[in-house]
Amino acid sequence: MSSLDARIRADLEAKIRSGEWAPGDRIPTEHELMGVYGCARMTVHKAISALVAARLIERRKKAGSFVARPHVQTAVLEIPDIAALIAGRGETYAFELLARRVRPPATNEEAGFLATGEVLELDGLHVAQGRPFALEHRLIGLAAAPQAAQVDFTAEAPGSWLLGHIPWTEARHRITARSPGAVAARRLAIGPSAACLQVERWTWKQSEPVTYVRQLFPGELYDLVAEFKPTPER
Fold first, then answer.
1. CA-to-CA distance for 40 and 42, rounded, in angstroms?
2. Which residues of the chain have pLDDT under 70?
3. What is the pLDDT of residue 139?
4. What angle do CA 134, 140, 144 make, to 5 degrees?
5. Cα angle vertex 173, ends 228, 138, to 5°?
6. I want to staple 116 with a disulfide (CB 3.0 to 4.6 A). Which of 25, 49, 91, 143 is the partner?
7. C-alpha dihedral sign at 10, 222, 124, 88
8. Cα separation of 172 and 112, whole Å?
9. For residue 212, which of 202, 221, 224 has the smallest C-alpha distance?
10. What pTM did the predictor assign?
């Protein structure tokens, strides 16, 4: 890439990283940028293509180029702290508590996992840079985490609190693709048939169930990544 290509890319990236251009904003056309920088269209095209490859800009057929919504990657076998992931990108994070109640297990599946005592049921929305990032439904076993009943989860997301206070020793994941449905779509500000990634997770502490969580992410915002190494031959 020539020095002018690099300068154009750096200028555009700075506007995106600073928030001057927000996710979903339409960026100037290649013709407009040619006028600003006094260069050939190919020079501008190369700079924008580099930003597309970096997932900072997305092209939409017949509509133009737009600032892409942030895309997060995490390892499949880790238990991520969504608040930390978003903050690590330099973006503002918030958790909106939508519902909270203490109750006994209500289904056979819940009873099979959280067999002892009551559960704390929480519904909430993870928000990144003022926009919906993930919808969460969580059950916390109060036998394993009795102090959770007194925590103000409007100040700290339940997943962040659990990672900091209740060390887990075993976890299981289930990952599926699904559409959100009408209610979740409204919460996530997406269409009811949009592609979403659903992550379910169960955790235990020394064989005692701690939490079950179901998180629904718009498909374009989240990747699950796993890295493996071959087992050494003996």
1. 5
2. 1-2, 70-78, 222-234
3. 95
4. 145
5. 145
6. 143
7. negative
8. 15
9. 202
10. 0.66
Query: What's the rounded Cα separation, in Å, for the pair 1 and 175?
Result: 39
CA distances from 92 to 1, 19, 83, 95, 135 (A): 33, 11, 9, 11, 17
Give tens-digit pLDDT for 144-173: 899 999 999 988 999 999 998 988 888 888
Tokens read off for 53: 């490859």
Beta-strand pair 222-225/72-75: parallel
Separation between Cα atoms, residue 69 and residue 118, nearest integer Å: 39
Q: Which long-range contacts (CB under 8 A, 24 or more apart) does 84-88 make?
A: 84/160, 86/126, 86/128, 86/129, 86/133
> Cα separations (Å) of 13 from 21, 26, 55, 57, 102?
9, 14, 11, 9, 46
Q: Is there a contact between 144 and 205 (Cβ–Cβ < 8 Å)?
A: yes
Instruction: Name the nearest CA neighbour of 113 among 76, 145, 147, 139.
Output: 139
- Cβ atoms of 113 and 107 within 8 Å: the answer is no
List the one residue out of 26, 31, 56 whose CA is nearest residue 44.
31
Q: What is the mean pLDDT of the chain?
A: 86
Buried b (16+ CB within 10 A) or exposed e, 36-60: ebebeeebbebbbebbeeeebbeee
> Going by C-beta distance under 8 Å and a sequence separation of 6 or more, which residues neighbour residue 85?
72, 74
Closest CA to 133 of 225, 54, 222, 213: 222
Give the residues across from 5 on adjacent strands: none
